[in-house]
Amino acid sequence: MGTAETHDPPRESVGTPKQTPRANHPTARFRAQGVVFLVTVVAFAAGTFFLLALIFGLFFNAVTIHLTFFAFGLLAFLHGFTEYRNRLTVSGTATATANSAAIGLVELSGRGYAEHSSESPVTKKLCAYWKVEVRHRGKNDFRFLRAVWNRVMERSSGCPETYELEDDTGRVLVWARGAEMIPIKQVWRSNRDTDPPEGVLRLITTLGLEWPKRWARFPMMVTEERIEQGGPLYVMGTLAERRQIPEASSGRFAAFMARWAPSDPPQPQGESYAGVFNYARTLGVRWILKDFRSVVPVWCPPVLDLHQVLVWKGDQRRPFIISGVLERQALRALSTRAWLYLLGGAGLMAWMLWEFLDKLTGNMHW
Questions:
Q1: 325 found inside a domain
Q2: Is 27 helix (H, G, I), strand (E, B) or coil?
Q3: How far is 89 from 317, CA to CA, in rounded Å?
Q4: CB count, 10 Å around CB of 230?
Q5: Residue 179: which of 165, 161, 166 has the closest Cα?
Q6: Which of 87, 126, 234, 323 has the lowest tally of Cβ within 10 angstroms?
Q7: CA-based Rg of the chain, rounded to a whole angstrom?
């Protein structure tokens, strides 16, 4: 006969205290860490707000506003030289073909295509890119604002990431990031003698507006910019193999934000107040700068074979132009932009300098 096995209950060791479950209520140290976390986030947010308010109050006065607009005029004046340099480069560079273009700065001309095309709202043409604006002059309290065109509507198909330029010898891919665009531009105004096309009237009707008469006090203007699918495409840029183009980059400003406000801040280690403080500081800065991340895009080259060539902006400050018009019209547009920036910037600088000297001499006692 088998004997039944018996199991003795486990014996508690002598001198060992009995384990009791830990209470789920927060401890005083945990509460203190939460208070430090909350106070730190609020302090960083409030400190930044008051710092910006202080800078605004100290900076924007009668003197600094003139200096600020003078700086804007100087930047516009310098940009005018850049536009003029681009014009000289376009006029002095020979046009190459798709299958014979050499690595480096190239000028190509042919027909342009985009992967996704759509009809423009006014002219109803199949386009690789289009943008439409409706502007209307309205009543303003300030007299000098009555000549300003107020934007009523703006629509766009969105700039394609890449174009394909085709000529009689082949095709070349164009990566459009950072390009200076020169599209076909048409403008219709109600205070002109010509009647608007049917597309303009249809667009105005869909907005619930009415096209004004030619002698109306507050006219309306419709502008359409487009690059037609299969239409003329002029490109000047840097031809390179895909392997010569650096990988994804977000720029220096985005790198600065990533260092000071990372997307995934490290969790506080241990229970030290210093770790909780650093974690709260990172969250506060990230909350302040979260809106800036959306305006700093991360650029990634198109996925291609490493030995395939494409035209892009380059890294040597060369001109990069994508035009939906022929070279002669592109030269005319570059000349117009150059003179507008040069004369406008010089005029703004002269005006601000005159205002500054006038106020300076007015405060002097002779």
A1: yes
A2: coil
A3: 12
A4: 13
A5: 161
A6: 126
A7: 32
Written as six digits, the tokens of 136 are: 């209307």
Residues 6+ apart with CB under 8 A from 168: 97, 110
Pairwise CA distance, residues 189 & 137, whole Å:
11
Residue that is written with structure tokens 């020169």 in the block: 182
Where residue 11 falls (left for φ over 0; alpha for ψ -120 to 50; beta otherwise) is beta
Give the 3-state DSSP-derived string for 90-129, with helices as H, strands as E and coil as C.
HHHCCCECCCCCCCEEEEEEEEEECCCCEECCCCCCEEEE
In tens, the pLDDT along 212-269 reads 988 888 899 999 999 999 999 999 999 999 999 887 665 555 565 556 555 555 555 5
The one-letter code for the residue type at 355 is E
In a domain, residue 165? The reply is yes
Rounded to whole angstroms, the Cα distance separating 350 from 285 reads 40
Residue 168's domain comprises 60-249+299-362
Query: Each residue of 111-134: pLDDT tens digit?
Result: 999 999 999 999 999 999 999 999
Phi, psi of 250, rounded to the nearest 5 degrees? -115, 5
In a domain, 45, yes or no: no
- Residues in the chain, total: 366
Q: What's the number of domains the chain is made of?
A: 1
DSSP 222-265: EEEEEEETTSEEEEEEEEEEGGGS---B-HHHHHHHHHHS-SSP
